Amino acid sequence: MRRFLIGLACIVVFGIALFVFKAPILRSLGKYLIHEDQLQKADAMFVLSGGGFDRGNEAVKVFKWGYTDKIICTGGNAFVELKALNIDTLESDMTAANIRRQGIPDSLVIEIKEGTSTREESNVILGYCKINHLSKVIILSSKFHTNRINNVFRKKFKQQGIDVIIHGAPSSDYDEMLWWQSEDGLIALNNEWIKTVYYWWKY
Prior knowledge:
Low-confidence stretches: 12-18
CATH architecture of the domain at 36-176: 3-Layer(aba) Sandwich
Number of helices: 7
Helix content: 40-55%
Distance between the termini: 49 Å
Mean pLDDT: 89
Strand order of the largest sheet: 3-2-1-4-5
């Protein structure tokens, strides 16, 4: 009986601690997924496919801050939602369109319509950098995507003498540090953790 009571007390104390420190614990799950570098002047900025609204908006800000004069949108995934309107376009097309509508000249926005995953896009971007002799580039994606980008890009690019600056676009649908207060935040964090574990396991 004594052991039972001690065990029960430990469970109660643990439950109370979880409740009291719920916010810091949940926040840490989101913070782990974020890895950003200090912005520096770069030869080009690559905007990864997906989330074209938020990523495109952040790309325009970085451009206007003067950190690069070339924006390259990558990705070969189809923008599925628009097929309902019989519009066949790619995620990279949508990102580029968002950037251009905000006044960035066409000549400074390039599309590379290749890559259907983070790993594939890293290979496509590395090839472009080598062909065009780029030595420092900004890789822009969603904030929750940045730690996985760091793991996929950093070592590979460093081996080729290319510096990578990782930058995250904040979501317009939720606060990354309060992700549990929004269904969109919950879905985004869940998806990224699944992808993170998958990349750990496969690569």
